[in-house]
Amino acid sequence: MGNAEFLRNLGIEVIHDLKGVGEGFQDHYAIRVANRVKGLQTLNERGRGISLIWEILKWFATGKGLLAFSPASVGAFIRSTPELSRPDLQGFPSSRSKSYSEARVLLEN
Q: What is the pTM for the complete model shown?
């Protein structure tokens, strides 16, 4: 599905001619910064094992706790240079971390 002429020139079978499909695609590169903490329980720890069961029960009982808020509670869209008419960078700080081991494998290959 997409611009039929463009797809046929690449040897791709066209299912449906629909101009504009895929033309605004951009990669989303991500930079991850993680910090280790000592002396307190992190959200990652509260989201695993017995702690997670407690968090689920707390959410059902009170609507509060770990499951009551989103992974990214704030976001920012920023222009890398003042000359741009629209932001070209975005940031979403998170109070949790995620394993990107699969992405790392893809990048290394």
A: 0.45
